[in-house]
Amino acid sequence: MATLPIVELLLLAIIIVVSSIKVQCFDFKFSDFQEENRKDLSLSKNSSIFRDAIQITPNLNGDIKNTPGRAFYGKKFKLWSKKKGKIASFNTTFVINISQKDSPEVGEGLAFVLSADSNVPQESFGQWLGIVNATTNGTSRARIVGVEFDTRKSYEEEPDGNHVGLDINSCYSIEQQSLSGYGVNLSMGVDVRAVVQYDGKNMTVFVSNGSETQSSNPVLSVPVDLSSFLPETVHVGFSASTGNFTELNCLRAWEFHGDDVGDDSNLLWVWIVIPILVLGLILGLGIYWRRRSKKDDLERGSANIEAHIKSSTAPRRFKLRELKRATGNFNHKNKLGKGGFGTVYKGVWKEKEIAVKRVSKKSHQGNQEFIAEVTTIGNLNHKNLVKLIGWCYENRELLLVYEYMPNGSLDKFIFYDEKTGKGESNQPNLSWETRLIIIQGVAEALDYLHNGCEKRVLHRDVKCSNIMLDSEFNAKLGDFGLARTIQQREKTHHSTIEIAGTPGYMAPETFLISRATVETDVYSYGVLLLEVVCGRKLGNQSELSNYNNSIVNWLWEYYSKGRITDAADSNLDRDFAEKEVESALILGLACCHPNPHFRPSMKTVSAILAGEMDPPQVPLERPSFVWPAVPPVFTQSDYSLTGSQSQSQFSTFSEVDGR
Ligand SMILES: *[C@@H]1O[C@H](CO)[C@@H](O)[C@H](O)[C@H]1NC(C)=O
Ligand SMILES: *[C@@H]1O[C@H](CO)[C@@H](O)[C@H](O)[C@H]1NC(C)=O
Ligand SMILES: *[C@@H]1O[C@H](CO)[C@@H](O)[C@H](O)[C@H]1NC(C)=O
Ligand SMILES: *[C@@H]1O[C@H](CO)[C@@H](O)[C@H](O)[C@H]1NC(C)=O
Ligand SMILES: *[C@@H]1O[C@H](CO)[C@@H](O)[C@H](O)[C@H]1NC(C)=O
Ligand SMILES: *[C@@H]1O[C@H](CO)[C@@H](O)[C@H](O)[C@H]1NC(C)=O
Ligand SMILES: *[C@@H]1O[C@H](CO)[C@@H](O)[C@H](O)[C@H]1NC(C)=O
Ligand SMILES: *[C@@H]1O[C@H](CO)[C@@H](O)[C@H](O)[C@H]1NC(C)=O
Ligand SMILES: *[C@@H]1O[C@H](CO)[C@@H](O)[C@H](O)[C@H]1NC(C)=O
User: Fold this and answer.
1) Closest CA to 179 of 197, 169, 192
2) How large is the C-alpha radius of gyration of the chain?
3) Residue 554 pLDDT more than 90?
4) What is the number of the ligand closest to the CA of 128?
């Protein structure tokens, strides 16, 4: 939002610049002249402002003979543009008052001029009217065009001592007209109003005495291309002179309206400034929109999550600040562990112990997984699932808050070092009863995920390190980073698309079907069950991932030899009910059946572990993995379930599909 004012300012600046270009006409108006107007004017030596008027030639008590003078507007006018091939049109209206002074006759006159030079030429008094001198007269050097109001007949061609003429680089007019027929006597000491118009082609002059406004009848209208005599920018103003005879040449009022043909010097900065402004605007907008869309994304993401989490048991949305305080700013002393998707810290919030998973920004658990986890477990409620208390999504930080599990994860109790014969962190040995409670708990959790909740959920990463133990060693299934809910339309597949999971826990068909299914979760559970009952040495990864070297293969060998209970963890010291352990191990093998169709459903698993059912019959030899897997109905005797239970077992198995 902070960028918005910048954008607005830039827009405003552009509007101002653009409009200033549009309004850049050359306009000014003096209804009279005061001393303070001097700064807007350029007056020659001896010209002065006196009695509300400019006296272009002086009004001195001494000698005012043979004096030229000029009075110009302070700024130059862009008359034409070579680049644009345009000539400006202009209108100017002025009131002059010429009166006889200390002289038997009047002389010499006054002119409205457009000139390259504002300085009065030397020796331009007398007949030259301050326009040219003997050297520049008639030459292109003069670079001056004027409309003369001549009060003296200086040479033969002039009609009289009261005329108007158009002068180009000369005081000899190319066209002239006596004012006698227009009710005007220039030197009578009265106000004479004159209008000079130029439309780019014709110069037209109207003259009237003070009582008349403007005659519709021009005194002069002469076609003239000013651009061929004058530079592109010119001074506009007046010149006047006295000679052997003198007069007072007064300008009493003046207004000027000139068109704009584009001022180069102004345009230069405009062409520099506008691109900068536009660039700035684009950048500003870019930044603004990016921030906005980022913010929108976050907000939309949050809204999405919040929309998904509707139940009354919905997890709370935490502030990052709260979680920092709870975990001592993610102090490494509070570190509980490092999982696949981030680091878990212990924290205390409202006097309750919590576990905060700080999802690593680098991890594969992007928003997708985050939302999966929050929306999945957010709506789940089962005593054997790790409870998600809350979540936080701030500053692109993803955090999940769980109930704290004092006994940590199951793997620490199950995997042991052969040399020391101890658990990973010198954990106490788990009794058979505890182990049974654990595997029952996990089975119930998975049954709930697969069959018990609104949408079927595949955990996809069932393994010892994802089983948490509370203070009473109740198992709680956690880490739903890979979990996927199966939407109704996907249900026929019972699957999700990507392969994900942990080597050793993945069913053999996973690699062929490239997707997780209910049966692949059951397979992972089977491996977990066998690990819990048998205990696991810390094998190396390649060994774990090798299907033939897996715990399943190893156990099947014990089973073939008819002494499956020998495989039970030596740490148990055979302190268990033989029948229970045997049943559990056979169940584990059934769950790890290479043919997914033969794996029991989690509901069946729960019933067997509760002693409500006998374990399924499992072939003595480990069946080889055949793909595509053949459903039980079409199996050959090798694969079929032996014994009287076969039919009922099959119907139980079919629960896998038909929930
Ligand atoms: C012009 O003005 C100067 C003083 O600025 C003065 O000395 C000079 O006499 C004037 N010239 C005329 C012709 O009045
Ligand atoms: C000059 O005046 C005439 C008539 O008043 C008008 O039509 C024209 O637009 C004016 N031109 C300029 C440049 O002001
Ligand atoms: C006429 O004026 C020009 C400058 O405008 C100057 O160079 C030249 O000497 C003047 N001629 C005379 C005769 O003074
Ligand atoms: C001044 O120039 C004009 C041409 O514009 C020429 O006809 C005239 O004779 C010249 N006058 C003098 C005195 O040189
Ligand atoms: C102004 O001119 C009109 C004719 O255009 C004339 O009738 C009138 O007398 C003149 N006024 C003066 C003061 O010269
Ligand atoms: C104009 O007025 C002056 C001064 O009043 C006078 O000398 C001159 O004769 C008049 N000219 C005409 C043509 O009326
Ligand atoms: C014209 O100028 C003279 C001399 O400055 C002045 O006496 C006269 O009143 C002026 N005319 C008008 C109409 O102001
Ligand atoms: C210029 O003036 C001449 C003669 O006065 C006239 O014939 C012509 O139409 C005018 N041209 C324009 C463009 O006003
Ligand atoms: C001005 O008067 C002087 C003598 O006083 C004379 O030499 C000169 O020729 C006159 N100038 C004009 C243009 O009449």
Assistant:
1) 192
2) 52
3) no
4) 4
**C-beta separation of 161 from 148 below 8 A:** no
Ligand 6 pocket, 180 CB below 6 A?
A: yes
Give the CATH number of domain 25-259; options: 2.60.120.200, 3.40.50.261, 3.10.350.10, 3.40.50.300. Answer: 2.60.120.200
Q: Which residue has the higher pLDDT, 271 or 448?
A: 448
Distance CA 507, CA 520 (A): 5
| Token reading at 409 | 């994860």
Mutate to test the pocket of ligand 2, among 24, 87, 91 (most ligand atoms within 8 A of CB): 91
Domain 405-649, CATH among 1.20.1740.10, 1.10.510.10, 3.30.230.40, 1.10.1670.40? 1.10.510.10
CB distance 66 to ligand 9 below 6 Å: no
Cα separation, 382 vs 456, in Å, equals 14
Residue 357 annotated as binding site: yes
- CA–CA separation, 591 vs 572, rounded Å? 23
Q: Give 606-621 pLDDT, tens digit per residue.
A: 999 999 989 999 998 8
Overall CATH class of domain 312-404 = alpha beta
Mean per-residue pLDDT, 387-412? 85
Which residue owns the Cα nearest ligand 8 atom 5? 221
Say if CB 262 and CB 79 are below 8 A apart: no
Could you list the beta-strand ranges (E) of 342-418.
342-349, 352-359, 388-394, 397-403, 415-417
Give the Cα separation of 47 and 34 in Å (integer).
13
Give tens-digit pLDDT for 172-200. 999 999 998 888 999 999 999 999 999 99
Please give the helix or strand (H or E) that residue 439 lies within, else none. helix 432-447
Domain regions of the chain by residue span:
25-259, 312-404, 405-649
Quote the pLDDT of residue 637: 45
CA atoms within 13 A on the CB side of 411: 12
pTM of the predicted protein model? 0.51
Residue 170 Cβ < 6 Å to ligand 4: yes
- pLDDT on residue 369: 63
Is 90 within 8 Å of 25 (Cβ atoms)?
no
Q: What pLDDT is attached to residue 52?
A: 92
- pLDDT for 2 equals 47
Best mean pLDDT range from 221-235, 289-303, 387-401, 413-427: 221-235
| Candidate from 95, 99, 100, 248 with most ligand 7 atoms within 8 A of CB, to mutate | 99
Residue 426 in contact with residue 437, Cβ under 8 Å? Answer: no
| Residues ≥6 apart with Cβ < 8 Å to 74 | 39, 40, 41, 42
Tell me which of 20 and 288 has the higher pLDDT.
288
Active site residues: 461
pLDDT of res. 640: 41
Determine the distance separating the centroid of ligand 6 and the alpha carbon of 189, expressed in angstroms: 10
